[in-house]
Design brief:
alpha/beta; five-stranded parallel β-sheet; EC 2.8.2.-; about 350 residues; NST/OST; P-loop_NTPase; 13 helices; two-stranded antiparallel sheet; Rossmann fold; [heparan sulfate]-glucosamine 3-sulfotransferase activity; single chain; binds 3'-phosphate-adenosine-5'-phosphate sulfate
Length: about 350
């Protein structure tokens, strides 16, 4: 821990002065500038126990939730440090703690850690490392508690956090809007089928004895009925979750980042994110290299360091092979929801 503290002190002292924030980006920098046009392809009642339940709906779902520790929580890893220590806060001296002006609200396993770690390279971004889970689990602790988790910022710096479970938390949109209706929201989305397998892979790594992905996917395998109460499946119904956010925020205040492009073209996606946040485009392709061993883009220099940095071993896991017929059935299941999501956001993510 002593080393970590020393590192952070050095980091804070080396932080350059903030850049002047560019003017707020125009709507066109966000994916999809068109508002939702009336959509009612099916009643959501058609999906019993589909969303936002807090009680596991099936023994299998319960098994997974139990394995995940009630609700999923990102494993702590070197790239997810805790909020600044009292020592670093003492040395950081200047600046003050602000409520976040921008939040990465989802989606779980979408690539949220990669996005936050890449953004932290920007001198005008300060972010809390660990997931605060304020708007889903700790709301009763109050905004003063939440603000105290944040790092200190100087004028012109943006405070950020990421908690991917907010995207599927029914109360989160109203709560974030009550904090500030100007909050900018970033959602990293990924092919829902791959996302579900990634989610399952994480649970499997903690509980190797859980049932197979194939058996968890179906309520009844012979009829092919998908178990939409399984969180790994329901999180991927992005259109449904987005509906709730659009009741509280205009689409222009949301940015949808492609989890796939964050891997294939991290600088391109970071360009869009910097525009959206009104930041000067400082993070460019010069900041990244492709690490063949990791199989992912990594930072040439992490924040406050001169060394190359890849995300930890819990990011970029090898997924188990899934029965292609089950994958096909899942693709079929998600297709209408994906199409609706493309329509709502004005962007085709190319998952179908
Ligand atoms: N650069 C880089 N390095 C490593 N991993 C990367 C990167 N960019 C995106 N990803 C993908 O991020 C996936 C994990 O997503 P999250 O960070 O959102 O997961 S979590 O919800 O916070 O647990 C993770 O999912 P898995 O591959 O299933 O492990 C990765 O595919």
């Amino acid at each position: 821990m002593g080393i970590a503290h020393g590192w952070r002190v050095q980091l804070l002292q080396r932080k350059p002065l903030p850049q002047t924030l560019a003017a707020r980006c125009p709507t066109s920098c966000c994916v999809g500038s068109t508002q939702t046009v009336g959509w009612s392809p099916m009643s959501w009642q058609a999906f019993p126990r589909l969303l936002f339940q807090t009680v596991p709906a099936t023994p299998l779902a319960a098994a997974q939730e139990k394995a995940e520790g009630a609700t999923s929580q990102e494993e702590q890893s070197p790239e997810a440090p805790d909020s600044p220590s009292p020592i670093s806060s003492f040395f950081s001296g200047s600046g003050s703690k602000q409520l976040p002006q921008a939040i990465i609200i989802g989606v779980k396993k979408g690539g949220t850690r990669a996005l936050l770690e890449f953004l932290r390279v920007h001198p005008d971004v300060r972010a809390v490392g660990a997931e605060p889970h304020f708007f889903d689990r700790s709301y009763d602790k109050g905004l003063a508690w939440y603000r105290d988790l944040m790092p200190r910022t100087l004028d012109g710096q943006i405070t950020m956090e990421k908690t991917p479970s907010y995207f599927v938390t029914r109360e989160a949109p109203a709560r974030i809007s009550a904090m500030s209706k100007d909050t900018k929201l970033i959602v990293v989305v990924r092919d829902p089928v791959t996302r579900a397998i990634s989610d399952y892979t994480q649970t499997l790594s903690k509980r190797p004895d859980i049932p197979t992905f194939e058996s968890l996917t179906f309520k009844n395998r012979s009829t092919g009925l998908i178990d939409t109460s399984w969180s790994a499946i329901q999180i991927g119904i992005y259109a449904k979750h987005l509906e709730h956010w659009l009741r509280h925020f205009p689409l222009s205040q949301m940015l949808f980042v492609s989890g796939e492009r964050l891997i294939s073209d991290p600088a391109g996606e970071l360009g869009r994110v910097q525009d959206f946040l009104g930041l000067k485009r400082i993070i460019t392709d010069k900041h990244f290299y492709f690490n063949k061993t990791k199989g992912f883009p990594c930072l040439k220099k992490a924040e406050g360091s001169s060394k190359p940095h890849c995300l930890g071993k819990t990011k970029g896991r090898t997924h188990p092979d899934i029965d292609p017929e089950v994958v096909r059935r899942l693709r079929e299941f998600y297709r209408p929801f994906n199409r609706k999501f493309y329509q709502m956001t004005g962007h085709d993510f190319g998952w179908d």
